[in-house]
Design a protein that fits this description.
This protein is of the alpha/beta class and about 575 residues long. It has 2 domains: about 325 residues, ABC transporter transmembrane region fold; about 240 residues, P-loop containing nucleotide triphosphate hydrolases (Rossmann fold, 3-Layer(aba) Sandwich), CATH 3.40.50.300. Helix content is about 65%, strand content about 10%. β4 and β5 form a beta hairpin. α6 runs antiparallel to α8. The chain is elongated, with a radius of gyration of 35 Å. Bound molecules: adenosine-5'-triphosphate. Adenosine-5'-triphosphate binds next to α10. It is found in: Cell membrane. Its main location: membrane. One of its GO terms (cellular component) is plasma membrane.
């Protein structure tokens, strides 16, 4: 995304806050007009002291007090509305980003580290809102001050005005030269911060593995390198950013001195009064101040621009395709793969021309060496990835025509890594059916065998669980996950290596629960332990993405092919 595109999108985004923008602008204009009017009054007061009665001076002083009071009021208004824009925009952006993230395809998460995404949510949006807050108010009052100061200056003395106005392009040239140089470092800084967040998040969640493999030193080294990159980008961006203000200040101070000298010369020629010189110098100061202030907030604006680019890049991404419109709930659960081809990389197919017919109610086991494509097959069924060619039918309906919500609701999924959400045990069980009554929840837990251990917690079903909850064993987590699916009662089940990391007792419990769950349903079981799938109606043997053998246990053993070898390798080792 080019800088112009980011700017355009930013303006389009800001347009929704047009009312607040207008109010902030109105307050800015009024407060600046009053601030610009004040020097004129001060000049008049100075002249009145020497040439007019005391009462006139007093009256002018009263005006000045009112002018400054109103100025403060409008200044407050401008800050209030700018704040409103800044906080509303960060709230809206976070909402849009969250919605977008939940609509992006799974493949997006394969390539984007979680920590980097969190950094976009937290840091980048904060930078945008800070940039708006400072930038907007400074820009609005700055531009208005410049315009009004010019008008008043010309009104006082056009010769001196020309000197002041001619200095403006120099200030601009100096500021934009520095800005251009620093922009690239601000972008690097935002990216480095995202990467560092991503790495930290991974390291903290994988601390056990890091320690087990003595990877601490190496991880520490990588972290230090990333931290150093962030430090260097930060220092460079701040170095260039902080040059802007003093450089422009130098130009404006020089002009100020020049104007003073010109004023003194004109006063000697009686072409200007002392009061007018005093007013003019105040205007010259007012005129140059916004340039310095604007370059001062450039650093924040640039950070905001770099962050906006990172946010808009995601907001512009193509969402998960959901062409399906048919309202459909499978009542039987038959599945058909017809000439399906798929590759994670569009140019490198993993699966070629897969054909498969699973009648409703069958128990299908998917076996094969690691990396054979077992998970991929179920990923396609759930439409986590789009197939390149062919069709997948559920109860005769092409899943392309079903909405993804409908499709995924018809599946009950139990994965190897059970995911628990923040909330009570009750909430976790009812996740797929929030309207379930307590009776239904308890009945499902009794059926799965989870009720026994839930009951033992002091707070029973109200026990609060956390995402990384260590209160529960892996068997208990699996039982909760199975209870969740039992409650949903879907027509089709996907059970992914659900018992592979459990002790024998827990495995028995979970197997019983699974048998119960599978009754009368079409089920896909991905199992490494072939002993658990001997009774499957159909076993699909996969290799390099292809289904190379199909049949039940007896048929495949008789064949003495890949399944036979796999089976014997497990039972003879
Ligand atoms: N998100 C992904 N992006 C790119 N390639 C992937 C992705 N997921 C899996 N693969 C590749 O696709 C192939 C099949 O992977 P898959 O996870 O389906 O195998 P699997 O049989 O389930 O393996 P395992 O038994 O180890 O879980 C592997 O070569 C794997 O490297």
């Amino acid at each position: 995304m080019s800088g112009k595109q980011v700017m355009k999108q930013l303006l389009r985004f800001l347009f929704q806050f047009k009312l607040y923008l207008l109010l902030a602008l109105a307050c800015a204009i009024l407060s600046v007009a009053l601030n610009v009017y004040a020097p004129l009054l001060i000049g008049d007061i100075l002249d009145a002291i020497t040439s007019k009665p005391l009462s006139t001076t007093f009256q002018l002083l009263c005006y000045l007090v009112v002018v400054y009071l109103l100025y403060s009021l409008f200044q407050w208004g401008m800050m209030y509305f700018s704040n409103k824009i800044a906080f509303s925009s960060s709230c809206v952006l976070r909402k849009q980003l969250y919605e977008k993230l939940s609509h992006l395809p799974i493949s997006f998460y394969d390539t984007n580290p979680r920590g980097d995404l969190i950094s976009r949510f937290v840091n980048d949006i904060d930078y945008i809102s800070d940039g708006f807050l400072q930038g907007l108010s400074t820009m609005m009052s700055g531009v208005t001050t410049i315009v009004l100061a010019i008008v008043f200056m010309i009104n006082i003395n056009w010769i001196m005005s020309i000197i002041v106005i001619l200095s403006a392009p120099f200030t601009y040239i100096v500021a934009s030269f520095i800005t251009k140089r620093s922009q690239q470092y601000f972008r690097k800084n935002a990216n480095a911060l995202g990467s560092l967040n991503g790495f930290s998040e991974e390291m903290l969640s994988g601390m056990k593995t890091i320690k087990a493999y003595h990877y601490e030193e190496s991880a520490n080294h990588t972290f230090q390198e990333m931290n150093q990159t962030l430090y260097e980008a930060g220092v460079k961006s701040q170095f260039y950013g902080s040059l802007a203000n003093p450089s422009t200040r130098f130009v404006t101070n020089f002009t100020y001195a020049l104007t003073g000298a010109a004023g003194a010369f004109l006063a000697l020629q009686s072409m200007i009064t002392i009061g007018n010189i005093s007013s003019f110098l105040m205007y010259a100061n007012l005129f140059s101040k916004p340039f310095t202030e604007i370059t001062g907030v450039m650093t924040q604006l640039q950070t905001a621009m770099a962050s906006a680019r990172r946010i808009f890049t995601i907001l512009d991404m193509e969402e998960e395709r959901d062409s399906g419109t048919t309202f459909f709930t499978p009542t039987k659960g038959s599945i058909e793969f017809s000439h399906v081809s798929f590759g994670y990389d569009k140019h490198k197919l993993l699966m070629k021309d897969i054909n498969l017919c699973i009648p409703a109610g069958e128990k299908v086991a998917i076996v094969g060496k690691t990396g054979a494509g077992k998970t991929t097959l179920v990923n396609l069924l759930l439409r986590f990835y789009e197939i390149n060619q062919g069709h997948i039918y559920v109860d005769g309906v092409d899943i392309e025509q079903m909405s993804k919500d409908d499709l995924r609701r018809s599946f009950g999924v139990v994965l190897q890594d059970t995911y628990l959400f923040e909330g009570t045990i009750r909430d976790n069980i009812a996740y797929g059916k929030p309207e379930a009554s307590d009776e239904e929840i308890i009945a499902a837990a009794k059926k799965s065998g989870a009720h026994e251990f839930i009951r033992r917690f002091t707070q029973g079903y109200d026990t609060v669980l956390h995402t990384n909850s260590n209160h529960l064993s892996s068997g208990q987590k699996q039982l909760l996950s199975l209870t969740r699916v039992l409650l949903m009662n879907p027509k089709i089940l996907i059970l992914d290596e659900a018992t592979s990391n459990m002790d024998t007792m827990s495995e028995q419990h979970v197997n019983q629960a699974m048998e119960l769950l599978m009754e009368g349903k079409t089920s896909f079981v991905i199992a490494h332990r072939l002993s658990t799938i001997l009774d499957a109606d159909k076993i699909l043997v996969m290799e390099h993405g292809d289904i190379i053998e199909t049949g039940n246990h007896e048929e495949l053993m008789k064949k003495q092919g890949a399944y036979y070898t796999l089976f014997n390798s497990q039972f003879t080792s």
